[in-house]
Design goal:
Order of helices and strands: EHEHHEHEHEHHEEHHHHHHHHHHHHHHHH
Shape: globular
Number of strands: 7
Largest sheet: 5 strands, parallel
Strand content: 5-15%
Strand order of the largest sheet: 3-2-1-4-5
Bound molecules: flavin-adenine dinucleotide, ligand DLZ, iron/sulfur cluster
Number of helices: 23
Structural class: mainly alpha
């Protein structure tokens, strides 16, 4: 008898290890454990989503004929880690081998590779996670010998390889990328879809009670719980997105609207990341919508690019550069994360709204993460480790393989620039252009050097000034440095003084 361990983000019936094992003679373990639930202060909605989805998946596996040993969360249990639970099972049942699918996170994968076999005294076999469309070795081969790893080129390879939106070897519509059509502010008219509401069963109710009892001290609200926890519910969420939001996804992909949750974004990342949906299934559905004339090409191309492009690319970068990647800090930032990242209490209207969405929903859409909370951390020079821990804690879709390259690389430019040829730094003007936030704010978005000027404006110029050495030779930033040089000397000094003041009083904004 062999034994398979299925992790909380491996809830997919076609998982590599499940294809190798045999329900007729092998057995499975799934475990809710203290170590996984607390290695970072996960949002309570994320824990509830995962524990409930895990319990539902265990039932699904049993219906498929598997024997599943399921360890429910118990903070008093002596089995605190996944290895503890597996060790106990190996002692009691003496399996001949432990079979695993590669983990999403380095810390656990490394422990499995280095310690588990010796500790357990049986062979440990780990299969690659082929739910991803690009294996880690394929990515490494693509990266080998390239000076720059640009996502756009990787994405084109993935389009060719998967055949998504391709015709006779050429991209549909004659272009690889329709991003220039995807930068509109919300028109104030196109209605936002109402998210589907999912029915709850006893498993959901038990898990919600458990999470309320044990994880209420983690940042994030559990007053409502909007997530699907069963596969058919996640499939409902996918169909809902395709029918109701995908048609406008492209146009308003970069827009932000106060008090809204997701605009026309899919809200599918938690399901794709934990395995209730597969990337292929999601892209198939989007492509089909285009072929049937239900969604325009700019929307479908933009959506598929996020998945076969960005999602696969950041995973490739993660495995190529870990473990050193997590420690990188090219811009030598050292400031602490201000309290409002944890309690939401700030007068900056844009930041307050992104925190509201984050705490209430364990969600913020990409532009909120990148251009508001992320941008602020970049401009303020927050230490990458602190901001990375925050992003890993507060979102239902957060796993280090995807969070770290997005935060450390894309947002903080702390890796020297794999994910962007220039930092995504922006002043309040960008936020003003793409949202309705500024009209609700105490700060003035049109000024940069006054005592009530938008902090993003003053900090933006301070960032440009303090990183002149790193960026002034970058051709994509030449215009910005020319504008900075042209600024009246006294205005420049007043802006930098205002920024210094803000940095000293960062906790009070
Ligand atoms: P949509 O906008 O509907 O996009 C569709 C899908 O594309 C997503 O579900 C996701 O699977 C994929 N996708 C889109 N953008 C990215 C991206 N940049 N990287 C990888 N996949 C992408 N995504 C996570 O899944 N987990 C994280 O922990 C995470 N941390 C992030 C941290 C920062 C600082 C930033 C800037 C981005 C982060 N992202 C993360 C990427 C992105 O913001 C989320 O995937 C997206 O907001 C999820 O919402 P959605 O499903 O509505 O996405
Ligand atoms: C995120 C998470 C949480 C909160 N709890 C568990 C758990 O109790 N048991 C489990 O198997 N997985 C959990 N996970 C997901 C793991 O952290 C994830 O599998 C690893 O980080 C590897 O990606
Ligand atoms: Fe944000 Fe500045 Fe606009 Fe206020 S004025 S909402 S701080 S961008």
């Amino acid at each position: 008898m062999r034994i398979g361990l299925i992790l909380g983000d491996q809830l997919t019936p076609s998982l590599a290890s499940l294809r190798v094992l045999d329900p007729a003679c092998d057995q499975l373990i799934m475990a809710e454990v203290v170590d996984e639930a607390t290695y970072v202060g996960h949002h309570p909605q994320k824990i509830a989503l995962l524990f409930s989805a895990m319990r539902h998946f265990a039932d699904e596996l049993r219906q498929m004929g598997w024997q599943v040993h399921y360890h429910k969360y118990d903070p008093q249990s002596e089995h605190r880690s996944l290895l503890d639970v597996v060790t106990e099972r190996v002692r009691s049942d003496a399996p001949s081998e432990l079979v695993l699918t590669q983990c999403g996170e380095y810390r656990l994968q490394h422990a499995m590779d280095m310690e588990w076999q010796d500790h357990l005294g049986i062979p440990v076999t780990i299969y690659g996670d082929d739910r991803f469309l690009c294996s880690t070795s394929q990515f490494a081969a693509w990266a080998d010998g390239r000076k720059q790893l640009r996502m756009e080129y990787f994405y084109r390879e993935m389009r060719r390889e998967t055949g998504y939106l391709m015709k006779d070897g050429e991209p549909e519509g004659g272009q690889w990328n329709f991003d220039s059509d995807n930068r509109k502010r919300w028109d104030g008219k196109t209605p936002f879809p109402e998210a589907p509401v999912f029915s709850r069963d006893d498993i959901d109710r038990d898990v919600l009670a458990l999470v309320r009892e044990h994880f209420s001290h983690h940042t994030g609200n559990l007053t409502h719980f909007p997530w699907a926890t069963r596969r058919h519910q996640a499939e409902q969420a996918l169909s809902f997105f395709i029918e109701n939001a995908l048609p406008a996804f492209g146009d308003f992909q970069d827009a932000m609207v106060r008090n809204e949750k997701a605009l026309f974004h899919s809200l599918l990342s938690p399901y794709i990341n934990c395995g209730l949906l597969t990337p292929r299934q999601v892209c198939d559905a989007a492509e089909q919508a285009w072929r049937e004339g239900l969604a325009p090409l700019n929307a479908v191309e933009g959506f598929i690019r996020q998945i076969i492009g960005w999602r696969e690319y950041v995973r490739g970068i993660y495995w190529l550069h870990m473990p050193g990647y997590a420690k990188e800090n090219t811009l030598k930032n050292s400031r602490s994360l201000p309290h409002y990242y944890w309690d939401g209490d700030t007068r900056m209207a844009c930041m307050a709204d992104c925190f509201r969405n984050t705490f209430d929903n364990a969600y913020a859409h990409h532009i909120q993460r990148l251009m508001v909370t992320g941008n602020f951390a970049l401009l303020a020079g927050i230490h990458p480790e602190e901001i990375c821990e925050w992003y890993l804690a507060v979102y239902a879709d957060a796993y280090e393989w995807v969070e770290l390259p997005n935060t450390l690389g894309m947002v903080m430019h702390a890796d020297g620039g794999y994910l962007g040829s220039k930092p995504y730094a922006a002043s309040g003007n960008y936020i003003h252009k793409m949202s309705d936030y500024c009209k609700h704010c105490d700060y003035q978005v049109k000024t940069r050097s006054d005592s009530d000027s938008c902090p993003f404006n003053s900090l933006y110029w301070h960032f440009i000034h303090r990183h002149e050495k790193e960026f002034s030779k970058n051709p994509r930033m030449a215009m910005i440095y020319r504008s900075f040089a042209k600024m009246q000397e006294d205005e420049r000094q007043r802006t930098l003084d205002r920024a210094e003041h803000l940095l000293i009083h960062l906790e009070e904004l």
